[in-house]
Amino acid sequence: TLNIAVLVSGRGSNLQSIIDNIENGYIPNAAVKVVISDKGDAYALERAEVHDIVPVFVDPSSFGDKKDYENKILEVLGKYDTNLVLLAGYMRILGSRIIGKYRNSIMNIHPALLPSFMGLHAQKQTLDYGVKVAGCTVHFVDEGMDTGPIVLQRCVPVLEGDDEESLSERILEQEHIIYPEAVKLFVENRLVVDGRKVSIT
Ligand code: GAR
């Protein structure tokens, strides 16, 4: 069984979609062992508890510098023999030591069609720019922000009268489809990374 750790900061609906798709058998031979949050009141931690997954709050403000915070995360990942790290609404840049140690074993979901609209408030950036097609991206995490090799993408239309909330909701529905799909492909060892390119075998 492959051990998954999920890093979160908030609501955790993407975490939920992974848990549900493991429980219903769509993602085989995998278990979410631990959910790590940088926010003590993240609803995602409650979701973890409901499913008997260990919730861990790592408070960034209680560490002297970023390195100590990173070490704490590494310690938790090690404790649960983590094979795959999923960022699911985790609103921080992951430290380079974690990325180095789990190269091509960390994925993120981003609510835009990368490489457009990297960073925060991607859906608002999408609306403000006036593009007609929006979407979401699952990618491997490298040292940049939202720059790593792309695994899967889905698009949705931007509709007349959309606001940030309505567009975000339309995108989120697709996030809940492609993140479990990407995790399934990873678990089945079907993702091959070659430079920027990810092929599905
Ligand atoms: C999702 O839309 C995710 O794509 C986005 O935050 C939301 C988290 O929702 N992530 C980012 O913007 C990362 N920069 P969730 O907590 O319900 O999964």
Automatic annotation (TrEMBL):
Residues 3-183 form the Formyl transferase N-terminal domain. The keyword Transferase applies. It comes from Methanococcoides burtonii (strain DSM 6242 / NBRC 107633 / OCM 468 / ACE-M). GO terms for cellular component: cytoplasm. PANTHER family: PHOSPHORIBOSYLGLYCINAMIDE FORMYLTRANSFERASE (PTHR43369:SF2). It is an enzyme of class 2 (transferase). This is phosphoribosylglycinamide formyltransferase 1. Pathway: Purine metabolism; IMP biosynthesis via de novo pathway; N(2)-formyl-N(1)-(5-phospho-D-ribosyl)glycinamide from N(1)-(5-phospho-D-ribosyl)glycinamide (10-formyl THF route): step 1/1. The keyword Acyltransferase does not apply. Transmembrane segments: none annotated. Pfam families: Formyl_trans_N (PF00551). It comes from the Archaea.
